Amino acid sequence: MLSFDNSPTVYWFIGYVLAGFVVFASQNNSLPTRAYLSAGVVLLVFMRLPVIVFNRELNPDESQMLSHALTLYQDPVYWRSVDGTTIGPLDNYLLVLPKLFGFPIDYSSGRFMGLLCVAGAWIFLFSALKNWFGASIARRISIVPLLFVAFTQEVDFVHYSSEQLPVLLLAFCAWQVSRLDPKTTPTAPGLYFLGLAAGAVPFGKLQAAPLAIVLVLSAFAVLFQRFQRYRELKSVAALILGGLTVPVFFLVFTLSFGVFDDLIDFYILGNAIYASGSTFTDIPSQFLKIISLSTDFQIFSFALTVPMAIGLMRIVRLYVPGKMGFHVPFTILFFLLACIYAVTKSGNDFIHYLNFCIIPWTLLAGYGLSAVEGWSLAFPAMMVLWFGGYDALHFVKERRLNAFDSVGNTQLHESPVVAEILKRRKDGDYMVVWGWNCSYYVEAQLAEGTAENHSERSIFEHPMREVYRKRYLSDLARTQPAFVLDAVGKNSLWVQDKKTQGIESYPELNQYIRSSYTLAGEFDDVRLYVRNDRR
């Protein structure tokens, strides 16, 4: 299998040559738009290959979602077999697709699916920019986020994250909104699919719902202008029908399989608890704090500072270039504000939340670019100079270009406890990990025996802890997992105190394990219990 060491100089050189061509294409309108877009996608895929073939966990969320996908392949009823906590079902179902085509569910396949989302989102973003500001500005500004997502090696932007599919859906919505014009008749299919994508966003990530709401309200604003003159009930009905399609599907789905209460308790109410971290007054400082954690995103923002500032001043001054009207700038403004709210509301300092900012940043910069279009080459040049200089410095100091050395790392790792499990596992087995280390599921390629594959919400004190604990025991009785791992300790995220957080800290669970399982040993600080009939 293809692999990359820590200094693939020829490969990196080709990447920068390709980047140079794409930057040239972005400034040269004589080249066909398809050539620019194709070259941009090739650049993105080419520079992401090293992280795709690096088959190791980069972020705990990756293992969490991949283990959900492994489980859904075996039992596809979400909220019965799987609870993604803050992550919606669509993000997890997406990871099942490679398995349906004969590929494994692992870190490489997950990042490939994420890459498809990033590439698709960039194409839809370009299309929205083109519809609103013209092809020339679309090229000159879309190159900046392309270079960012192609060359960044910051983990939060290259691992498969729960933001990537929602961002793709939001980019599609922005494109559909950009096609609307109060002076022309909108197409019912376009409005239906706009509503469909917007209605799907909360089932990818509930956190992204405010952004989808802004785009839907923007579409309704355009339709209202036409409705006053043409009474176009068909267009309004198409948008509403599209918006209801996915929610109604999941309503019927959950009622049919008896998991509607789980949807309410563990997705809606569970997310409400999770999202109670920040107040409105905390938003500015929280947002600046998250941005301060990502140097690459700071450079991306800096490269767009001038056109973004001009765009913002135009909105504040109610200046409207050409015949655009107020609809587009105010859509962009509220989209940006909704993005900042979504990024900060949980109160967590997770850099991957900044994925939601890429589209609003670029749209605002596109709105202001016409005033400085003659200087447009400077903006992608800043990105190339930053990444090129950073790579050159690390090559001179450390002989390192690639942060993801995949030599010997293209196959899944086997932790000591997983190596022992693989000696005993059978097809169709379930496994449970008490604590937080979902990589064991991925390494063992076993489905999770409890809907929540990390037990943090059954360990820490919060208003719904007993509800989570009750479901945990119910799931164990339903799946009867062959293996139970007590991972609380050095290999567990957040929960590492064996005395107060291990299996013994939950008496009912401890009693169930002792009566039905036998301790097979401790492997690298992880206790392995095997069901009595499998000893």
TrEMBL record:
UniProt entry keywords in alphabetical sequence: Membrane, Transmembrane, Transmembrane helix
Regions crossing the membrane: 6-24, 36-54, 112-129, 141-160, 206-224, 236-260, 297-320, 326-343, 375-393
Signal peptide span: none
Protein name from the UniProt record: Glycosyltransferase RgtA/B/C/D-like domain-containing protein
Organism expressing this protein natively: Dyadobacter sp. 676
